[in-house]
Amino acid sequence: MKYAYINGKILDGTKDMQVKEGFVILTDNDKIEDIVKAGTDLNGYEKVDLKGRYIMPGLINMHVHLAGNGKPQKKQRDNEKLVKILMGNALMRSIAYGMVAGFAKTELMSGVTTIRTVGGLGSFDTKLRDEINAGTKMGPRILAANEGISVPGGHMAGSVAVAADSIDTALKHLEQSEKEKVDLIKLMITGGVMDAKEKGVPGELKMSPEMVKAVCDKAHENGYLVSAHVESPQGVRVALENGVDSIEHGAKIDDDTIKLFKERKAFLCTTISPALPYALFDRSITNATEVEQFNGNVVFEGIIACAKAALENDIPVVLGNDVGCPWITQYDFWRELYYFHKYTGVSNAFALHTATARAAEMVGIGDITGTLEKDKCADMIVTEENPLDDLRALRHVKMVVARGTITENPKVKINKRVETELDKFL
């Protein structure tokens, strides 16, 4: 179909974007054919009247685990045991895959037109990616890592990451990932908030520098970028020294680490959302222990400090919300943009740019999506209010256009308890 999006206020996704009026976006199937002045002959196009609403690039969520729904937990669950059940037989795998596909559709219906998965169930993410590309499933564009690489006792080992007990085992998994045609490789280098058993030690180094280097060297040789879960200063340093391309989460960094970021040309994926509940909620709500709350605050402050330092030193930053963690849903990525603005002090325009054009650029698809311009993919969302005035405008998306396919008034199922508690921190 050829569409003409008329009477819209355009936000193009560029760094210093401002509202553009008096223009029409022309699309032909999945591509933006042109952006022309209002009054241009639109013969041959079906008109889509935006009625003065705001149209912008679809959001790009750079840190997603499609196996989780974000439902709060009364106690920490055994993820390894749960995944064994989900993947235990053909029937359970079919049910689990349906769940994953449903969560991907939820991402899309919330305004996220591209996701980057960084740890999932088996090879589900690449399978779903291919089905979405073929048009047999509805969902966002997926850049998939499938299962990550961890170590015995390491972060997410046995659930959405394999537990590699040696460099040889890690490299064998890398080889398997390549056979599954993944888009990137994910390492779990340190522990996380819930892994630490004592105060002050979240992000404890779990993976040896030698294993990090071996995987990065081989992955780079075969043309893959490597992302890494790290939540401590030591973890960030080890990751960068040994070849990691993106730091997921982050921690307080010093001048030497800033230098490493620049030497590696690495980028930071900031994830404020998952640590916020453990740092700021009352423990009666999160059911967190005193140790977990203390460590949650360490990680929360470290992620914010890392993002600020990166921005001050021209280190590229992108955004992900680590969806699947308790309190972090598949439809709430807009909150990450809001937190990024609130806690690092960037403008609303820069937050939106970070979650669109900047993200696309850093993962090598900047020529495909991320901005509204001629020859880019027709990945667009429409809001009633202007997100440059208030990012909460992104909460209620009125239209999603994914590779040219229009969904008007998209709906997602809201968890009222999650919404109520998180809204207290807006």
Write a structural description.
This is Amidohydrolase family protein. The protein has 426 residues and is an alpha/beta fold. Among the domains are: 2-57 and 374-413, Urease, subunit C, domain 1 (Roll); 147-315, TIM Barrel (Alpha-Beta Barrel), CATH 3.20.20.140. Helix content is 35%, strand content 20%. The protein has helices at residues 79-86, 90-109, 124-134, 167-179, 209-221, 233-241, 255-264, 276-280, 283-286, 290-312, 333-344, 348-362, 416-423, and strands at residues 2-6, 9-10, 23-28, 31-37, 46-49, 54-57, 59-64, 112-117, 141-144, 148-150, 161-163, 185-188, 226-230, 246-249, 267-270, 317-319, 380-383, 397-402, 405-408. Strands 2-6-17-18-19 form a five-stranded mixed β-sheet, with no helix packed on it. Strand 13 (226-230), helix 6 (233-241) and strand 14 (246-249) form a beta-alpha-beta unit. Helix 4 packs parallel to helix 5 (209-221) and helix 11 crosses helix 12. The longest helix is centred in the last third of the chain and has 23 residues, at 290-312. It is globular and about 65 Å long. The model has no long low-confidence stretch (mean pLDDT 96).
User: Looking across the biggest beta sheet, what order are the strands in?
Assistant: 2-6-17-18-19
The largest pleated sheet is described as: 5 strands, mixed
CATH topology of the domain at 147-315: TIM Barrel
- Structural class of the helix and strand makeup? alpha/beta
Give start-end ranges of low-pLDDT stretches.
none
Termini Cα gap: 40 Å
Name the average pLDDT: 96
- Tell me the CATH architecture of the domain at 147-315: Alpha-Beta Barrel
What's the gyration radius in Å?
Answer: 21 Å
Specify the CATH homologous superfamily of the domain at 147-315: Metal-dependent hydrolases
Task: Work out the helicity level.
Answer: 25-40%
- Label the overall shape: globular
CATH secondary-structure class of the domain at 147-315: Alpha Beta
Number of helices: 13
Strand tally = 19
Strand content: 15-25%
